[in-house]
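Model it.
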Amino acid sequence: MNEWLFEHVWITYAIIYVLVTYVYNKVFRVRKLPLLKDAIIYVLIGIGTFVLLVFQLFGLPIVLCLLVAVGLMLLVRVRYFVEDRQKRRAEDEGQSEAKG
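Modeled.
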């Protein structure tokens, strides 16, 4: 896999950029920013992605680490979804018992 990523540098850059942007939006973005500030942040993410690309090309598993991070984030979101569903179900059962 590393050979393929090394041969396709621009695709590797795009993969890293998308993964870093996802992590930024789900973890660090608190509220909506003005358009110019948002553009500056994405340009800085692009510069940081270039640095991460250099690390990837020198043999560090940047793409794999980002995939693990995104996978763990998705796992946490699924867990929160399941917990929220269980709470709603418990509340609905409690309300139906109180009425009946």
